[in-house]
Amino acid sequence: MNSQLSFDPFTLEIIASQLRAAAREMFVALGHASQSPIIYEVLDYACGLTDSRGQLVAEAEGIPGFIGVLGDAVQATLRKHGSALDPGDIFITNDPYDGGGSHLSDVALIAPIFFDGQLVAFGVNKSHWTEVGGMAAGSWTTDATEIYQEGLLFPAIRLHDRGKPIQSLFDLIEVNVRTPAMTLGDLRAGVAALKVTQERAVGLCEKYGAQAVQAAIERLLDQGQRAARARLATLPPGTYRASGFLDNDGLTADPVPIQVAVTVTPDEFICDFTGSAPQTRGPINTTLSSLGASCKSIFKAIIDPWMPTNDGVFHPLRVIAPPGCVFNAQRPAPVSTYWESSDYATDLVWRALAEIVPDRLSAGHSLSVCGTIVAGEDERGQPWIWVEPQPGGWGASQWEDGESGLVVAGDGETYNIPVEVAETRFPIRVERYTLNCDGAGVGRRRGGFGLIREYRILAENGAELTASFGRHKFPPWGAAGGHEGSVNAVEVFDGDRLLFRRGKVTRHKLKTGDRVRLITGTGGGWGRTEEREKELIERDLREGYVSNRG
Fold first, then answer.
1. What is the number of other CB atoms lying within 10 angstroms of the CB of residue 530?
2. Which alpha helices (H) appear in 285-353, and where do they start and end?
3. Out of 109, 151, 485, 502, which could bridge 139 as a Cys pair, Cβ 3.0 to 4.6 Å?
4. pLDDT in tens for each of the 550 residues of the chain?
5. Which among 101, 96, 98 has a CA at the least distance from the CA of 76?
């Protein structure tokens, strides 16, 4: 850290704060310019800056699973292109196996930032495009059996060459997606946002000098590592275990066994998923990069959720998963509903440590992103595609009842699409939107409630529904004697007649007038039910959360 000696800590902290502000400005710019509701309403994206080696140094508060792989995307670009980088270059990647990918819909754009001919940093953003082609509208589905069915794959290739767009690549994208205006609009929004951050980073170098900026970056990484190790040392050392099941892989009804051993020492936090099931034929697999992001999010929640995020923070974290297991799938395994394993990896570590650090972790929550796609064609034959996650119930903690109607851990700062936007942009009517007060998750502190959201299809040409609601079979776990929560589910009605209730739905044809009911579960309870205070029971009765019948 000798490069810091000639710069006072106040200046370095100002630079560090402005780097974080540059990432947030990128976030705002991308959201304002995007075309997909899943970006500008749901906020299904993340933005950050890395150093010249691809280490994350500043981020905007986006999806944790994306923030955790921004550096991986930059490092994949460096491995492929080495020193052959020029000012004005922009690269694109969504490779799940080599490039910080999650699934193909999540596309990263990377821009090297130069000052006086020196590479000083990278700007990078990653967002969920509504369409990247593939076998199904919306580009993810529950029955894919290989990555090639899931859309276009960009293996860390140039999108702009020295400031000039490579038009042939834009043309290729345009003819391979169902909604080209939306997809290319999201692409251009990401490019524009990168340019904003490039200007801010270069401005910092002009004001303070490149050496000062580099010193601030080193200081950020060093501070992150020191703070993480100091907090890690306060955890009780030992090895803690948890196991469970994924509902199924989307193709069969067979549960998929998973497990973790978490070893905590004063210097390391090791998450070992050895013993989990082999990668599956269906698309619930995740890759090592996305698994690492899941472990980063729970690691940070445990040591200090308020600490600024950078790769120094994660220096003590080690993630182990044998190649070819469901948590470290190998090419060309399908990964389009990857959240059903990556989020469960977070949950395994969470469960292993929930009663070890009860002041920092709650009981289990609805967990699955509960991804939903409703798609069809308008009266002119033009496709429309609506993609969104569904919030659910969070588990109770030793201090308070669980949160209700909140997006799951892997989705971080996201939302679902507001009723007004959904009804304006798409041929549907939202007929019900309420808490799912099903009586599950009771305890001294009760689990938060999920949601019930019901749509009626108005499209004259009908529509099709795809959904992946994990935790359909195995409910959120209770802690310290608290009861289990309830499962997620999708119900489809023909008029008032229930056709089915499932956890996964694959391109089911809907007629005009059909109803879709999306149900997310209640979180697990904490502590014994008989210990719940009388005034809290009376409040629940007064608010209509529970009934005194029976």
1. 8
2. 288-303, 339-353
3. 151
4. 344 446 888 999 999 999 999 999 999 999 999 999 999 999 999 999 999 999 999 999 888 888 889 999 999 999 999 889 999 999 999 999 998 889 999 999 999 999 999 999 999 999 999 999 999 999 999 999 999 999 999 999 999 999 999 999 999 999 999 999 999 999 999 999 999 999 999 999 999 999 999 999 999 999 999 999 999 999 999 999 999 999 999 999 999 999 999 999 999 999 999 999 999 999 999 999 999 999 999 999 999 988 889 999 999 999 999 999 999 999 999 999 999 999 999 999 999 999 899 999 999 999 999 999 999 998 888 999 999 999 999 999 999 999 999 998 877 778 888 999 999 999 999 999 999 999 999 999 999 999 999 999 999 999 999 999 999 999 999 999 999 999 999 999 998 899 999 999 999 999 999 999 999 999 999 999 999 999 999 999 999 898 665 4
5. 98
Dihedral angle, C-alpha 175, 181, 186, 189, nearest 10 ° = 120
Complete edge-to-edge strand list for the sheet that includes strand 106-115: 56-59, 45-50, 118-128, 106-115, 90-93, 157-161, 164-165
Q: Return the structure tokens found at 347.
A: 């949950």
**CB-based contact 384:181 (threshold 8 Å):** no
Angle subtended by helix axes 180-208 and 210-232, to nearest 10: 100
Say how far apart CA 72 and CA 293 lie, in whole Å: 10
Q: What are phi and psi of 14, to 5 degrees?
A: -60, -45
* 8 Å CB contact between 199 and 32: no
Give one DSSP letter per residue of 363-403, joined into a string.
S----S--EEEEEEE-TTS-EEEEEE---BPPPP-SSSPPP
Write a three-state SS string for 169-185.
HHHHHHCCCCCHHHHHH
Contact 311, 221 (CB under 8 A): yes
CA–CA separation, 489 vs 449, rounded Å? Answer: 14
The span from the CA of 550 to the CA of 546, in Å, is: 11
State the first-to-last Cα distance of the chain, in angstroms, to the nearest integer. 68
Instruction: Say which residue the tokens 């692409």 belong to.
Output: 187
Strand 463-468 to 371-377 pairing: antiparallel
0.85 exceeded by pTM: yes
Alpha-carbon torsion (189, 195, 201, 207), positive or negative = negative
HSE-CB of 150 using CA atoms within 13 angstroms: 31
- φ, ψ at 497 (rounded to 5°): -95, 125
